[in-house]
Amino acid sequence: MDPQKPAAKKRKLTDKSLPASILHSPTFSVDSQMYQDLLAMERRLDWTMTRKRTEVQDAMSRPITATRTMRIFLSHTVSGQAWQRPASSDPTASDVPNVNFETGEGIPAWQFKIEGRILEIPNQRAKDRVPPRKFSTLIKSMVVELERDPAQYPDQNVIEWKRGPGVAPLDGFTIRRRGDAPTKIRVMMYLEQHPEQLRVHPDLGNIIGVKEESRTGVVQALWNYIKVQGLQDKVDRKMIKADAALRPIFGQDSISFQQIPERINRYFMPAEPIVLHYTLNPSVPPPEKASAWDVEVRTDDLGLKTRMNHVLVGVAQDTAKELLKIDDEIALHVQSLTNSHLKRTFLASFANAPQAFIQTWLESQSRDLESILGSGPSEGATLRQDDLRRSEYFRLPWVEEAVAVQEGLRLAAKVGL
Fold first, then answer.
1. What is the pLDDT of residue 368?
2. What is each CA distance from 4 to 1, 7, 8, 9, 40, in whole angstroms?
3. Which residues, 6 or more positions from 196, have their beta carbon under 8 angstroms from its beta carbon?
4. For 259, which DSSP code?
5. Res 9 pLDDT > 50
6. Where are the domains of the chain?
7. Whole-angstrom Cα distance, residue 242 to residue 251?
8. Closest alpha carbon to 95 in 108, 82, 79
9. Do residues 69 and 119 make contact, with C-beta atoms less than 8 angstroms apart?
10. Is 67 helix (H, G, I), strand (E, B) or coil?
11. Across residues 12-27, what is the average pLDDT?
12. Residue 143 pairs with which residues in a beta bridge?
Protein backbone atom coordinates (compact mmCIF):
# COMPACT_ATOMS: atom_id res chain seq x y z
CA MET A 1 0.00 0.00 0.00
CA ASP A 2 1.42 3.34 -1.01
CA PRO A 3 2.05 5.69 1.87
CA GLN A 4 -0.44 8.51 2.05
CA LYS A 5 0.97 11.73 0.70
CA PRO A 6 0.67 14.80 2.89
CA ALA A 7 -1.98 17.23 1.81
CA ALA A 8 -0.69 20.05 -0.31
CA LYS A 9 -0.41 23.27 1.57
CA LYS A 10 -2.86 25.80 0.29
CA ARG A 11 -1.21 28.98 -0.88
CA LYS A 12 -2.58 32.07 0.79
CA LEU A 13 -3.06 35.23 -1.25
CA THR A 14 -1.48 38.16 0.57
CA ASP A 15 -1.01 40.73 -2.22
CA LYS A 16 -3.44 43.61 -1.79
CA SER A 17 -1.88 45.86 -4.44
CA LEU A 18 -3.71 46.51 -7.66
CA PRO A 19 -1.91 45.60 -10.90
CA ALA A 20 -0.36 48.40 -12.93
CA SER A 21 -2.80 47.81 -15.78
CA ILE A 22 -5.72 48.84 -13.54
CA LEU A 23 -3.85 51.71 -11.85
CA HIS A 24 -2.92 53.26 -15.22
CA SER A 25 -6.30 52.72 -16.79
CA PRO A 26 -8.18 56.04 -17.27
CA THR A 27 -11.49 54.25 -16.66
CA PHE A 28 -10.57 53.26 -13.11
CA SER A 29 -8.24 56.15 -12.20
CA VAL A 30 -10.54 57.67 -9.55
CA ASP A 31 -11.39 54.38 -7.85
CA SER A 32 -7.78 53.23 -8.03
CA GLN A 33 -6.57 56.42 -6.35
CA MET A 34 -9.14 56.00 -3.55
CA TYR A 35 -7.92 52.44 -2.98
CA GLN A 36 -4.28 53.59 -2.96
CA ASP A 37 -5.16 56.27 -0.39
CA LEU A 38 -6.77 53.60 1.80
CA LEU A 39 -3.63 51.46 1.62
CA ALA A 40 -1.47 54.45 2.57
CA MET A 41 -3.77 55.24 5.50
CA GLU A 42 -3.59 51.60 6.61
CA ARG A 43 0.21 51.73 6.61
CA ARG A 44 0.19 54.87 8.74
CA LEU A 45 -2.34 53.31 11.11
CA ASP A 46 -0.25 50.13 11.42
CA TRP A 47 2.83 52.21 12.21
CA THR A 48 0.93 54.22 14.84
CA MET A 49 -0.48 51.07 16.48
CA THR A 50 2.96 49.47 16.57
CA ARG A 51 4.45 52.58 18.16
CA LYS A 52 1.66 52.76 20.76
CA ARG A 53 2.05 49.07 21.56
CA THR A 54 5.77 49.61 22.07
CA GLU A 55 5.05 52.54 24.38
CA VAL A 56 2.63 50.43 26.42
CA GLN A 57 5.21 47.65 26.71
CA ASP A 58 7.83 50.16 27.84
CA ALA A 59 5.40 51.65 30.36
CA MET A 60 4.60 48.21 31.78
CA SER A 61 8.29 47.52 32.32
CA ARG A 62 8.46 50.54 34.65
CA PRO A 63 6.64 50.76 37.99
CA ILE A 64 3.16 52.24 37.62
CA THR A 65 2.13 53.89 40.87
CA ALA A 66 -1.07 55.42 42.13
CA THR A 67 -1.78 57.44 45.26
CA ARG A 68 -4.14 55.55 47.53
CA THR A 69 -5.49 56.10 51.03
CA MET A 70 -4.39 53.71 53.78
CA ARG A 71 -6.52 53.75 56.91
CA ILE A 72 -4.71 52.75 60.11
CA PHE A 73 -6.68 51.55 63.13
CA LEU A 74 -5.39 51.62 66.73
CA SER A 75 -7.36 49.92 69.46
CA HIS A 76 -6.88 47.97 72.69
CA THR A 77 -8.55 45.45 74.93
CA VAL A 78 -7.93 44.68 78.59
CA SER A 79 -8.27 41.70 80.86
CA GLY A 80 -7.98 41.04 84.59
CA GLN A 81 -8.50 44.69 85.51
CA ALA A 82 -10.11 45.74 88.76
CA TRP A 83 -13.27 47.03 87.11
CA GLN A 84 -13.67 43.68 85.33
CA ARG A 85 -13.75 41.59 88.55
CA PRO A 86 -17.19 40.52 89.72
CA ALA A 87 -18.40 42.23 92.89
CA SER A 88 -18.31 39.92 95.91
CA SER A 89 -21.37 39.74 98.24
CA ASP A 90 -19.22 38.45 101.11
CA PRO A 91 -17.86 41.46 103.09
CA THR A 92 -15.19 39.30 104.65
CA ALA A 93 -13.76 38.26 101.28
CA SER A 94 -10.29 39.56 100.36
CA ASP A 95 -9.88 42.15 97.61
CA VAL A 96 -6.88 40.29 96.25
CA PRO A 97 -7.97 38.31 93.18
CA ASN A 98 -7.16 34.67 92.61
CA VAL A 99 -4.10 34.65 90.40
CA ASN A 100 -2.95 31.73 88.27
CA PHE A 101 0.59 32.44 87.11
CA GLU A 102 0.59 29.49 84.69
CA THR A 103 -2.47 30.56 82.73
CA GLY A 104 -2.25 34.28 83.49
CA GLU A 105 -5.77 34.34 84.84
CA GLY A 106 -6.36 37.19 87.27
CA ILE A 107 -3.23 39.13 86.24
CA PRO A 108 -4.07 42.63 84.90
CA ALA A 109 -3.04 42.86 81.25
CA TRP A 110 -3.85 44.66 78.03
CA GLN A 111 -3.53 44.04 74.29
CA PHE A 112 -2.69 46.83 71.83
CA LYS A 113 -3.71 46.27 68.19
CA ILE A 114 -2.38 47.97 65.05
CA GLU A 115 -4.33 47.24 61.86
CA GLY A 116 -4.61 48.85 58.45
CA ARG A 117 -5.99 48.48 54.95
CA ILE A 118 -6.11 50.27 51.62
CA LEU A 119 -9.49 51.89 51.02
CA GLU A 120 -11.35 50.91 47.88
CA ILE A 121 -11.76 53.42 45.08
CA PRO A 122 -15.36 54.72 44.97
CA ASN A 123 -17.50 53.58 42.04
CA GLN A 124 -14.81 51.22 40.79
CA ARG A 125 -15.89 48.47 38.43
CA ALA A 126 -15.87 44.98 39.88
CA LYS A 127 -13.60 43.62 37.14
CA ASP A 128 -11.00 46.34 37.84
CA ARG A 129 -10.73 45.52 41.53
CA VAL A 130 -7.64 43.71 42.72
CA PRO A 131 -7.27 41.56 45.84
CA PRO A 132 -6.48 43.75 48.89
CA ARG A 133 -2.89 43.72 50.11
CA LYS A 134 -1.97 42.69 53.61
CA PHE A 135 -1.13 45.51 56.01
CA SER A 136 2.41 44.30 56.66
CA THR A 137 3.25 44.47 52.92
CA LEU A 138 2.66 48.24 52.99
CA ILE A 139 5.31 49.04 55.60
CA LYS A 140 9.06 48.35 55.73
CA SER A 141 9.51 48.61 59.47
CA MET A 142 7.70 49.76 62.60
CA VAL A 143 8.76 50.86 66.07
CA VAL A 144 6.36 51.00 69.02
CA GLU A 145 7.47 52.85 72.15
CA LEU A 146 5.67 52.32 75.48
CA GLU A 147 6.00 55.19 77.93
CA ARG A 148 5.90 53.53 81.38
CA ASP A 149 8.16 53.03 84.37
CA PRO A 150 10.79 50.38 83.47
CA ALA A 151 11.36 49.66 87.16
CA GLN A 152 7.74 48.68 87.68
CA TYR A 153 7.32 47.09 84.23
CA PRO A 154 10.62 45.50 83.21
CA ASP A 155 9.12 44.01 80.05
CA GLN A 156 10.44 45.29 76.75
CA ASN A 157 9.08 48.80 76.26
CA VAL A 158 10.44 49.33 72.74
CA ILE A 159 9.14 46.89 70.13
CA GLU A 160 10.63 46.87 66.65
CA TRP A 161 9.41 44.98 63.57
CA LYS A 162 11.17 44.72 60.20
CA ARG A 163 9.83 43.05 57.11
CA GLY A 164 12.23 40.51 55.69
CA PRO A 165 12.25 37.59 53.27
CA GLY A 166 10.19 34.63 54.33
CA VAL A 167 7.98 36.64 56.70
CA ALA A 168 4.32 35.85 56.16
CA PRO A 169 2.15 38.90 55.42
CA LEU A 170 -0.13 39.99 58.25
CA ASP A 171 -3.34 41.99 58.52
CA GLY A 172 -2.20 43.61 61.76
CA PHE A 173 -0.05 43.42 64.88
CA THR A 174 -0.91 42.79 68.52
CA ILE A 175 1.27 43.75 71.49
CA ARG A 176 0.46 42.10 74.83
CA ARG A 177 1.73 43.44 78.14
CA ARG A 178 0.84 43.10 81.82
CA GLY A 179 -0.13 46.09 83.90
CA ASP A 180 -2.98 48.33 85.00
CA ALA A 181 -1.33 51.76 84.74
CA PRO A 182 -2.17 54.24 81.96
CA THR A 183 0.40 54.04 79.14
CA LYS A 184 1.25 56.47 76.38
CA ILE A 185 2.14 54.73 73.13
CA ARG A 186 4.00 56.15 70.16
CA VAL A 187 3.90 54.24 66.86
CA MET A 188 6.43 55.04 64.11
CA MET A 189 5.90 53.39 60.73
CA TYR A 190 8.17 53.53 57.68
CA LEU A 191 6.14 52.95 54.52
CA GLU A 192 7.10 50.60 51.73
CA GLN A 193 6.58 52.68 48.57
CA HIS A 194 7.51 51.96 44.96
CA PRO A 195 9.49 53.78 43.81
CA GLU A 196 11.15 54.67 47.10
CA GLN A 197 10.18 58.13 48.35
CA LEU A 198 12.96 60.28 49.81
CA ARG A 199 13.09 63.66 51.50
CA VAL A 200 14.84 66.38 49.53
CA HIS A 201 17.16 68.75 51.36
CA PRO A 202 15.77 72.30 51.43
CA ASP A 203 18.84 73.61 49.56
CA LEU A 204 17.64 71.67 46.49
CA GLY A 205 13.97 71.29 47.32
CA ASN A 206 13.34 75.05 47.48
CA ILE A 207 14.76 75.43 43.97
CA ILE A 208 12.66 72.77 42.25
CA GLY A 209 9.66 73.01 44.59
CA VAL A 210 9.83 69.42 45.87
CA LYS A 211 9.93 68.24 49.48
CA GLU A 212 9.54 64.48 49.09
CA GLU A 213 9.84 62.53 45.86
CA SER A 214 11.56 59.55 44.22
CA ARG A 215 15.01 59.88 42.69
CA THR A 216 13.56 59.81 39.18
CA GLY A 217 10.96 62.42 40.12
CA VAL A 218 13.63 64.77 41.50
CA VAL A 219 15.73 64.47 38.33
CA GLN A 220 12.62 65.15 36.24
CA ALA A 221 11.72 68.21 38.34
CA LEU A 222 15.29 69.51 38.03
CA TRP A 223 15.20 68.96 34.26
CA ASN A 224 11.95 70.94 34.04
CA TYR A 225 13.63 73.79 35.97
CA ILE A 226 16.59 73.70 33.55
CA LYS A 227 14.28 73.91 30.52
CA VAL A 228 12.20 76.76 31.97
CA GLN A 229 15.30 78.76 32.87
CA GLY A 230 16.99 78.04 29.52
CA LEU A 231 20.14 76.59 31.10
CA GLN A 232 20.83 74.01 28.37
CA ASP A 233 23.84 74.91 26.24
CA LYS A 234 22.86 76.06 22.75
CA VAL A 235 25.77 74.30 21.03
CA ASP A 236 26.46 71.22 23.14
CA ARG A 237 23.01 70.08 24.28
CA LYS A 238 24.54 67.66 26.77
CA MET A 239 25.98 70.48 28.88
CA ILE A 240 23.94 72.33 31.52
CA LYS A 241 24.84 75.83 32.68
CA ALA A 242 24.42 76.61 36.37
CA ASP A 243 22.63 79.76 37.40
CA ALA A 244 23.06 81.46 40.78
CA ALA A 245 20.70 78.98 42.47
CA LEU A 246 22.22 75.80 40.99
CA ARG A 247 25.87 76.80 41.27
CA PRO A 248 26.13 75.64 44.94
CA ILE A 249 24.38 72.39 43.96
CA PHE A 250 26.64 71.58 40.98
CA GLY A 251 29.80 73.09 42.47
CA GLN A 252 30.85 74.53 39.09
CA ASP A 253 29.57 76.76 36.31
CA SER A 254 28.58 73.94 33.92
CA ILE A 255 28.02 70.21 34.14
CA SER A 256 27.05 67.39 31.78
CA PHE A 257 23.58 65.98 32.12
CA GLN A 258 24.97 62.51 32.97
CA GLN A 259 26.63 63.92 36.11
CA ILE A 260 23.43 65.40 37.59
CA PRO A 261 22.22 62.24 39.44
CA GLU A 262 25.63 61.85 41.09
CA ARG A 263 25.75 65.50 42.21
CA ILE A 264 22.28 65.53 43.76
CA ASN A 265 22.63 62.23 45.67
CA ARG A 266 23.90 64.04 48.78
CA TYR A 267 20.66 66.03 48.95
CA PHE A 268 18.52 62.93 49.53
CA MET A 269 17.47 61.99 53.06
CA PRO A 270 15.37 59.08 54.35
CA ALA A 271 11.66 59.73 54.37
CA GLU A 272 10.15 60.68 57.70
CA PRO A 273 8.10 57.98 59.40
CA ILE A 274 4.41 58.20 60.17
CA VAL A 275 4.10 58.95 63.88
CA LEU A 276 0.86 58.11 65.73
CA HIS A 277 0.15 58.74 69.42
CA TYR A 278 -2.24 56.65 71.47
CA THR A 279 -3.14 56.66 75.16
CA LEU A 280 -4.09 53.34 76.72
CA ASN A 281 -5.88 53.49 80.08
CA PRO A 282 -6.68 50.02 81.43
CA SER A 283 -8.61 51.42 84.41
CA VAL A 284 -11.60 52.31 82.21
CA PRO A 285 -13.43 50.31 79.54
CA PRO A 286 -11.82 50.65 76.09
CA PRO A 287 -13.67 52.67 73.44
CA GLU A 288 -16.16 50.77 71.32
CA LYS A 289 -14.65 52.01 68.04
CA ALA A 290 -10.99 51.99 67.11
CA SER A 291 -9.16 55.24 66.48
CA ALA A 292 -8.42 55.73 62.76
CA TRP A 293 -5.89 57.74 60.76
CA ASP A 294 -5.80 58.17 56.98
CA VAL A 295 -2.40 58.23 55.26
CA GLU A 296 -1.64 58.81 51.57
CA VAL A 297 0.62 56.09 50.14
CA ARG A 298 1.93 55.25 46.69
CA THR A 299 1.33 51.69 45.64
CA ASP A 300 1.57 49.69 42.43
CA ASP A 301 -1.47 50.33 40.27
CA LEU A 302 -2.24 46.70 39.54
CA GLY A 303 -5.62 47.58 38.04
CA LEU A 304 -4.06 49.83 35.41
CA LYS A 305 -1.39 47.24 34.67
CA THR A 306 -4.06 44.60 34.19
CA ARG A 307 -6.02 46.82 31.81
CA MET A 308 -2.88 47.71 29.86
CA ASN A 309 -1.90 44.06 29.62
CA HIS A 310 -5.42 43.22 28.40
CA VAL A 311 -5.13 45.88 25.70
CA LEU A 312 -1.68 44.65 24.75
CA VAL A 313 -2.40 40.93 24.70
CA GLY A 314 -6.11 40.15 24.77
CA VAL A 315 -7.39 42.82 22.43
CA ALA A 316 -4.38 42.43 20.13
CA GLN A 317 -5.07 38.72 19.67
CA ASP A 318 -8.76 39.23 18.98
CA THR A 319 -8.22 42.07 16.53
CA ALA A 320 -5.31 40.27 14.85
CA LYS A 321 -7.58 37.36 13.91
CA GLU A 322 -10.24 39.72 12.59
CA LEU A 323 -7.71 41.80 10.64
CA LEU A 324 -6.14 38.67 9.17
CA LYS A 325 -9.56 37.52 7.97
CA ILE A 326 -10.26 40.92 6.41
CA ASP A 327 -6.83 40.95 4.71
CA ASP A 328 -7.54 37.54 3.17
CA GLU A 329 -10.88 38.79 1.87
CA ILE A 330 -9.25 41.89 0.37
CA ALA A 331 -6.56 39.76 -1.31
CA LEU A 332 -9.25 37.52 -2.81
CA HIS A 333 -11.17 40.53 -4.09
CA VAL A 334 -8.01 42.01 -5.62
CA GLN A 335 -7.25 38.69 -7.32
CA SER A 336 -10.81 38.49 -8.59
CA LEU A 337 -10.60 42.09 -9.79
CA THR A 338 -7.37 41.33 -11.66
CA ASN A 339 -8.90 38.32 -13.37
CA SER A 340 -12.01 40.28 -14.28
CA HIS A 341 -9.87 43.10 -15.68
CA LEU A 342 -7.95 40.64 -17.85
CA LYS A 343 -11.19 39.20 -19.16
CA ARG A 344 -12.59 42.67 -19.80
CA THR A 345 -9.45 43.74 -21.65
CA PHE A 346 -9.54 40.55 -23.71
CA LEU A 347 -13.18 41.02 -24.71
CA ALA A 348 -12.84 44.78 -25.24
CA SER A 349 -9.90 44.24 -27.61
CA PHE A 350 -11.94 41.72 -29.58
CA ALA A 351 -14.99 44.00 -29.72
CA ASN A 352 -13.02 47.07 -30.85
CA ALA A 353 -10.99 45.42 -33.65
CA PRO A 354 -11.93 41.76 -34.22
CA GLN A 355 -9.59 41.27 -37.20
CA ALA A 356 -6.53 42.78 -35.53
CA PHE A 357 -7.32 40.98 -32.30
CA ILE A 358 -7.53 37.60 -34.04
CA GLN A 359 -4.29 38.29 -35.90
CA THR A 360 -2.50 39.25 -32.69
CA TRP A 361 -3.91 36.25 -30.87
CA LEU A 362 -2.77 33.89 -33.63
CA GLU A 363 0.72 35.37 -33.53
CA SER A 364 0.82 34.89 -29.77
CA GLN A 365 -0.31 31.30 -30.02
CA SER A 366 2.23 30.72 -32.79
CA ARG A 367 5.06 32.00 -30.61
CA ASP A 368 3.88 29.81 -27.72
CA LEU A 369 3.81 26.79 -30.00
CA GLU A 370 7.29 27.58 -31.31
CA SER A 371 8.56 27.80 -27.72
CA ILE A 372 7.03 24.43 -26.86
CA LEU A 373 8.23 22.61 -30.01
CA GLY A 374 11.58 24.41 -30.25
CA SER A 375 11.17 25.15 -33.98
CA GLY A 376 9.83 27.80 -36.35
CA PRO A 377 11.05 31.24 -37.42
CA SER A 378 12.41 31.97 -33.94
CA GLU A 379 14.23 28.60 -33.83
CA GLY A 380 12.97 27.83 -30.36
CA ALA A 381 13.60 31.27 -28.91
CA THR A 382 10.79 32.93 -27.00
CA LEU A 383 10.99 36.23 -28.90
CA ARG A 384 11.17 37.11 -32.54
CA GLN A 385 13.72 39.54 -33.82
CA ASP A 386 11.11 41.77 -35.44
CA ASP A 387 9.27 42.04 -32.08
CA LEU A 388 12.47 43.08 -30.30
CA ARG A 389 12.86 46.01 -32.70
CA ARG A 390 9.53 47.55 -31.66
CA SER A 391 9.50 49.64 -28.47
CA GLU A 392 5.76 49.20 -27.87
CA TYR A 393 6.43 45.47 -27.48
CA PHE A 394 8.13 46.17 -24.13
CA ARG A 395 5.14 48.15 -22.87
CA LEU A 396 2.73 45.23 -23.01
CA PRO A 397 0.96 44.24 -19.72
CA TRP A 398 2.90 41.00 -19.29
CA VAL A 399 6.35 42.63 -19.42
CA GLU A 400 6.20 44.00 -15.89
CA GLU A 401 5.28 40.61 -14.46
CA ALA A 402 7.99 38.86 -16.49
CA VAL A 403 10.64 41.27 -15.20
CA ALA A 404 9.48 40.70 -11.60
CA VAL A 405 9.66 36.92 -12.02
CA GLN A 406 13.10 37.08 -13.61
CA GLU A 407 14.42 39.38 -10.89
CA GLY A 408 13.05 37.04 -8.25
CA LEU A 409 14.80 34.08 -9.82
CA ARG A 410 18.06 36.02 -10.00
CA LEU A 411 17.95 37.02 -6.33
CA ALA A 412 17.02 33.46 -5.31
CA ALA A 413 20.01 32.09 -7.21
CA LYS A 414 22.23 34.71 -5.62
CA VAL A 415 21.37 33.70 -2.05
CA GLY A 416 21.52 30.00 -2.92
CA LEU A 417 17.82 29.12 -2.71
1. 67
2. 9, 9, 12, 15, 46
3. 214, 215, 271
4. G
5. no
6. 65-82+105-119+128-193+271-296, 198-270
7. 9
8. 82
9. yes
10. strand
11. 72
12. 160, 188
Give 253-263 pLDDT, tens digit per residue: 899 988 988 88
In the predicted model, is pLDDT for residue 334 greater than 80? yes
* Structure confidence at residue 76 (pLDDT): 95
CA distance 405 to 20: 15
At residue 113, the pLDDT reads 96
Please measure the distance between the N-terminal and C-terminal CA atoms of the chain and give it in whole angstroms: 34
With a threshold of 0.70, does the pTM exceed it?
no
Q: How far is CA 348 from CA 93, 115, 165, 344, 354, in A?
A: 127, 88, 83, 6, 10
CATH number of 198-270: 1.10.245.10
d(CA 387, CA 363): 11
Angstrom distance (rounded) from CA 349 to CA 356: 9
Nearest of 250, 251, 246, 262 to residue 208 by alpha carbon: 246
Contacts of 98 (CB under 8 A, 6+ apart): 105, 106
Under CATH, which number does the domain 65-82+105-119+128-193+271-296 receive?
2.60.40.1970
Any idea how long the chain is? Answer: 417
For 80-139, the pLDDT digits (tens) are 888 887 765 555 544 555 666 555 567 889 999 999 998 887 777 776 677 788 899 888
User: Is residue 195 within 8 Å of residue 215, measured between CB atoms?
Assistant: yes
